[in-house]
Amino acid sequence: MGDKSSVKEPRGWKSLPLGALPYRLSLDYKTGDWRALKPVIDYGKCVNCMLCWLYCPDSAILWDGKKVFMNYDYCKGCGICSDVCPTKAIKMVPEGE
Ligand code: SF4
Ligand code: SF4
After folding, report:
1. Tell me, what's the pLDDT at 88?
2. Domain residues of the chain, as ranges?
3. Which ligand 1 atom sits closest to the C-alpha of 37?
4. Whether pLDDT at 3 is above 80
5. Which of 1, 2, 56, 91 makes an SS bond possible with 61, Cβ 3.0 to 4.6 Å?
6. Which protein residue has the closest C-alpha to ligand 2 atom 2?
């Protein structure tokens, strides 16, 4: 059997050190200013397949009933939408261009 001296007694939650916790809605934390590259849609190539909308990890792609568009307040510029777009309609360009 193993050495029982290394087994620690279980501790309750009151023994945990205090830490930070976000307490506001995620909508209050705009993450778009992390972005170095910005996705731009060429609507001439877009076929409304919605794959970019499906794969965006930040739910930063929206649908207005006719077309998809980016909510740049929350887009972090990861480029996943550009990678999954079957028609290469989304180009990643340097922020500020
Ligand atoms: S770059 Fe990333 S975060 Fe921004 S819209 Fe595309 S998938 Fe979403
Ligand atoms: S993945 Fe490309 S083609 Fe499909 S909706 Fe998005 S931009 Fe349009």
Report:
1. 98
2. 44-97
3. 1
4. no
5. 56
6. 85
